[in-house]
Amino acid sequence: MSQKKIGDVVLNVQDISLRFGGVKALTNISFDVREHEVRAIIGPNGAGKSSMLNCINGVYQPQEGSISFRGQTFKHMNSRQVAEMGIARTFQNLALFKGMSVVDNIMTGRNLRIKSNLLMQAIRNPFSIGGAQKEEEAHREFVEHIIDFLEIQAHRKAPVGQLPYGLQKRIDLGRALAMEPQVLLLDEPMAGMNLEEKQDMSRFILDVNDEFGTTIVLIEHDMGVVMDISDRVVVLDYGKKIGDGTPDAVRSNEEVISAYLGTSH
């Protein structure tokens, strides 16, 4: 990886515990994310990785602990508040609108940023519609930039449901990028992909991190990918943190090796 400047802590997770009835999903998890880094969360199935992302983006409300974003500490936040603050999320199971085109799917990521409602503006002030149309054009232009960036121009009008799975994952990334997030949470962005698709997605993630300056937090099972693209890695096992550090430090951590990586790695 090329040298880059990692900034101050932008996201701080402190002593997060999450329970579902009597089941402990997360126990006293703490870690931070620094500006402009790629921060990976790894661990075996059932380790609590997706639950951790769900706590960060407001889907779950942990019973204990707090999460700070840019110095502001929150006990409870809903998903919309999190998105408005600048944290976007992709999901392990795609939630795209299968009957809609690629362009329209990515455009849905602009919803939070569209301040003008063309119809309402026309009703209130018939002369203001020109400004609203200009705003709409600016949003469309931004979406087209993302389509070019992700190299999906050839599919821009195609219904998403007709495209291969690897391309759908790329479109899901595009929709999250349309929100112009400061922090992007990626939940297994390469699940179900072949080697070539994984290489493409790894390149796009690094380009997003580099060219957009977006801080990335990702869950990923492919250890080759994690070790190649991450700046730091936090390791969960049965809802507890068992490792945290650079890829090299994590790779040589005995507890991590026995719990997850195995001696073959």
Automatic annotation (TrEMBL):
It holds the Pfam family ABC_tran. The keyword Transport applies. InterPro entries: AAA+_ATPase, ABC_AA/LPS_Transport, ABC_transporter-like_ATP-bd, BCA_ABC_TP_C, P-loop_NTPase. Coiled coil: none annotated. GO terms for molecular function: ATP binding; ATP hydrolysis activity. Signal peptide: none annotated. Residues 11-263 form the ABC transporter domain. PROSITE patterns: ABC_TRANSPORTER_2. Transmembrane segments: none annotated. This is ABC transporter ATP-binding protein. It comes from Hydrogenophaga aromaticivorans. The lineage of its organism: Bacteria, Pseudomonadati, Pseudomonadota, Betaproteobacteria, Burkholderiales.
